[in-house]
Each structure stands twice: as C-alpha cells, then as structure tokens.
Amino acid sequence: MLDTLKRPELLRAQNFINGQWLAARSGAKLAVTDPATLDKLLDVADSGAADAQAALEAAQAAFPAWRERSGRERAQLLKKWNALILAHADDLAKIISSEQGKPLAEARGEVLYGASYVEWFAEEATRTHGDVIPEPVRGKKLLAVKEPVGVVAAITPWNFPLAMIARKLAPALAAGCTVVAKPAEDTPLTALALVALAEEAGFPAGTINIVAASRERTPEVVDVWLADSRVRKITFTGSTPVGKHLARASASTLKKLSLELGGNAPFIVFEDADLDAAVDGLLTAKFRNGGQTCVCPNRVYVQDSVRGRFVDKLAVRVSALRVGPATDERSQIGPMINARAVEKIDRHVQDAVAKGARVVVGGQVLQGIGAGHYYAPTVLVDANPTMELAHEETFGPVVPVFGFATEDEVIALANDTPFGLAAYFYTRDAARIWRVGDRLETGIVGINEGAISAEAAPFGGVKESGYGREGSRHGLEDYLHVKYLCQGGLK
C-alpha cells in the first residue's frame, strides 16, 4: 500500500531535530512492520539519550521566540498545517493502515479526527484570555495573565498514531510552547509524516522535534526529559503503570502533567432501552480499531429481563463483521498490533471460559488471513467479576456480557474499578439519565451514544485513568500557567 503514496517523500526514517532530518547518533535503527503481514515497512532511527538531549536543546532554544509570537501568528501556521493534513489525507491514511493495521476507511476517519484538533486549537490560540481583578484597595490594578508553560514532552501511543500526537502538539503550539515528542515504537511513520507536513507549513526550526525509539531504548530517551528541569510539562497517553512512573519521576522537578491512562469502561443496557440502538452503539464503541482504544467498552452489563434478546441481536451483528487486512476495502476489523496483544486477548477469553463464560461468537485466534495478528470478534455470556477481563482492559474485539437486576446493583458494579475514563449507558427514562450520569465515576459518559470523542469536548479520566483534559478550551489550559500582576502607586 505504501508504494501507492502520491507523495512518497512523506515516508521519513530519521528524527526531526532543530529543523533537520537526522539519523540516530548511534546509527541504530528500528524495524517498523505491517501487523497484517509481518513484512518490514521501513527502518527508522532508534534514538538514545544523545538524540533526546539534542531535541530538548533545540526546543529550549526555540521557545523564547515562539512564545513571543502573537496568538494569531501561531494560529496561521496551525491552519496551514491543518490544510496540508487534509490535502494529504489519503496518503496519511495509507501510512496509518500499513503500520497500525486499521482498515483504510477507519484510518481516513482518524486523519480527519486528528486534523479537527489542529483546526480547533488554531482557533483557540487567539483566546488565551486572562482576568482583570477588582482591586481590594484604591491605587492598585490586579491582573491575571496566561503564559505558555515552556518545553513540552509528548509521548504518544500506537493505537491512534496521528490523532494522539495531533491532540497534543496542536494545543502545545497554540499556547506558545515548543515540543519534543516520542511516538510509539510500533507506529512512528505516521507521526514522522505529520511532522514533515508541519515543517512544510513553516513552523520555525526547534519548535517541533521528534525522535523515534524502540521499546528497549524508550526509557533512555524519556529519562532525559524527565530529569531535566527545562521540560516543564509531560503529556502522555498510555498505560496506568507507565503513567504512575512518569508522575513519580516528574516529582523532583514538579513538571505539569497530563496523563490519559488505562480504562475499564462499562456499557450498561437498561430494560427500557432501545435495544437496536444499544447494539448499534456497542458496535461503534467496541469494535472501532478492533477494540484497541482506551474508551472501548470492556464490561457490558445488560438488565436480566432483556439480556437474552440483546445477546441474540448482538451475536447476529458481530458474526457478520469482516476481518482482514487494510488492503481489502471490505475489512471492518484489522489485525491486532502485535503478538503480545493477541496473547493477552486469548488469555482473557480462555480464563473467562474456565470460570464459567460461554462463547456465543468467535473466541479464537484466526488463522489463514496471511501471517498477521488476527483475533475473531467475540461475544461471551455469563461473565462474572472473578474473570480477568472484568478487571483488566482486554484491548481487543471481545464483548463479555454480564447480567444485573437493579440500577443500584449495576452502578456499584460499574464503579467497582480503580479506573474511570469512559462509561456508556442506554435508557429511555429521562430521570434515570440524570441519576446514572451523576453516579458514574468516570470522566466521560456516553448516554444513548457510542461515539463520544470530539475536538470541542474535554477528553480525560478520573481515578487511575489519569488527569488533565485534551480537546475543548480546557485542553489549552493544560499548556498554560497563570501569572498574577499587581501594580501599585496609582492613586
């Protein structure tokens, strides 16, 4: 698929530091593979501490001039970047599908979704309003102004290789910060292509710096940024254990943190719900990217009186999902990202079956679709809280269905987790909507809706799903701090 790119020069294999494309200083390289075929796509730079340090030096040197640019000037560059992303949407989608595995139509959707954040924050760049504070005594003027925090280190995941880095870089740049970034080791090509378009848009040298690194070298890269007080903010999307490590390691320099971490999302179907709409919503929420998203429903609770009907409808829809590589336009579910992902999914299913679950659809590793990492879309019934999948994110195309009798019972079950990113529920009872919405302990709630992400809305969690928000006006605030000015002697 990469051999059909209209602009093959978007495929980059080097780091981008201080406006230059550079090999890793050690000369080391990282092989990027296609999860659908296991074929090597490209060797990219496998960076170490020296590369991370060079990126930081460039970002720090570029920060004073960048922060002095007006919000309007920064907005104009972001708009140029957005236009280039949209103009090259097909090429970017092919890169995403090749290295991440999601079907091509879904990859195109990711490009548009990522671009929406660039456009949104281009507009927000001119709206960093402060406050004029009523003076407590005559002769003083009190002001609160907002300023960029400084150099930002962005660490992004593999499941949305374009959208996640766009969602971090756009607000940082809009606020007047400069950036050092490290994309996930499985999917660096999309991020490097995105930065190549930012270079084309005209961002000054050192404003955006990106280094690729393997799983083994990633700690070496990130530790440079964690230890250096010139990095004033870390923004990270990934697992809760890694997020906790970043929080601990940032304490010595008191960096600002935005952590979008793991989830264990409940999806609740009450007996008064529109069951067809609930099935539609579940398929949208669960099977996007093959279940490999942090807001995918991980526990599906269906009220006992309608559980059989719901499962019957769901089974028909899930059994019809087509699994295959992105090169097949008919594919709806692509490969899982790697062998570790498939092993975890299968372990969860086998554990559930051993503890009393019954497989209605799927339930096995798929063979015969090339050499890729495929798992069958799966529906399990009679799930219970003793199973691993009740407590850990499966991160794959598996729907475990739990039963419940009462509203109070299901709220307790839904909240019985250390995580609190997203939750979903379906009901036609207006009073219940407000009761349940208030009682769910998550940062995001989908009510009769399975597609919840939007650039205008705040995305983030509570409890061990992290803190900080991405998107919306709140997303810009995370890259700013407030300075209080007090002027006296005005009587």
From TrEMBL:
InterPro entries per the UniProt record, alphabetical: Ald_DH/histidinol_DH, Ald_DH_C, Ald_DH_CS_CYS, Ald_DH_CS_GLU, Ald_DH_N, Aldehyde_DH_dom, Aldehyde_DH_Superfamily, Succ_semiAld_DH
Domain spans labelled Aldehyde dehydrogenase: 21-484
Molecular function in Gene Ontology: succinate-semialdehyde dehydrogenase (NAD+) activity
GO biological process, one term: gamma-aminobutyric acid catabolic process
Transmembrane helix in keyword set: no
Keyword Hydrolase: no
Signal peptide positions on this chain: none
Top-level lineage group: Bacteria
Keywords: Oxidoreductase
Catalytic residues as annotated in Swiss-Prot or TrEMBL: E260
Database matches in NCBIfam families: SSADH
Family classification: Belongs to the aldehyde dehydrogenase family.
Name of protein: NAD-dependent succinate-semialdehyde dehydrogenase
Source organism (scientific name): Ramlibacter agri
